[in-house]
# Entry
Amino acid sequence: MAAALGLVGIFLVSDILWTLWTEGAEDLAETVIGLSKELILVVAIILTLPYFYNAFAVMVNTIGVHLVDYGDPGLLLATDLPIIILGASVGYFVPYLANLAADITFALLVTIALAVLRFVLIGALFVAAPILAVLWLFPPFRKVISFVFEIEVGLAISGLIAGAVLALIGKVAYADPSGVSIAVLLGRLA
# Structure
């Protein structure tokens, strides 16, 4: 945050020079007034961003936890683990079961890797947010910063979508285990 506030002056001067270069010096007073308003907005964003992010994260995480609990992901793991164990133990004799176990294991590992990557990206973008807010002061960077902000919001909301999908899958698995898939049936028998 301190580095971002320190860079504000540099980017304010560069924005004034950029405006003079592209539009000329006719309306310099209006340009400085407009930049001062943008500067106040950026400083307010830098100072209040941690509080807004905390409130947003608590809200999204609370909703996501309730969605995931609604679907009971334990049932999904309880159906996958017996198939993985059976595929590892008798996979030599039943190649289809070995392939199914390998696919489920790979899907679980990819899911874990993507979840970790999502958390790391959200954290990195949050840490970089004050610097990105300062970069927004410079007109050539505005579209890029808007794109990065959209990515941050998308990553935050993707947790809700994943929770809703897990809840739907969990409820479908509870509804009729024999009609959903052989994986659910094997999990109930094991």
